[in-house]
Amino acid sequence: MQIATSRLLGYNELPVNVLTSTYCDLMGDAKLFALHNVKRNRRAAAVVLLFAGAVISGWLMRSQGGLQSVLWVAAGVKLLVAVFTFTFHPGKTD
User: What is the pLDDT of residue 83?
Assistant: First the structure.
């Protein structure tokens, strides 16, 4: 569902399941050092945010809440992103 949603919203440069293709796309970008490169910025942000999410979930796993806290935080973040996307993302006009 995440892959289909990212394709539907037009963010084809962000694979949501693996980082390997993001690394390859990031390093193979001809405009890697350009000043204004939106796709590069999204790919770099995806790498940084995935790493931050892994660190935060590891920290939460070691807390008293354990796996349940990680799952509830993940569900909450996905719900907020879904609500934000469907509320504020501009729709396509035909």
Answer: 92
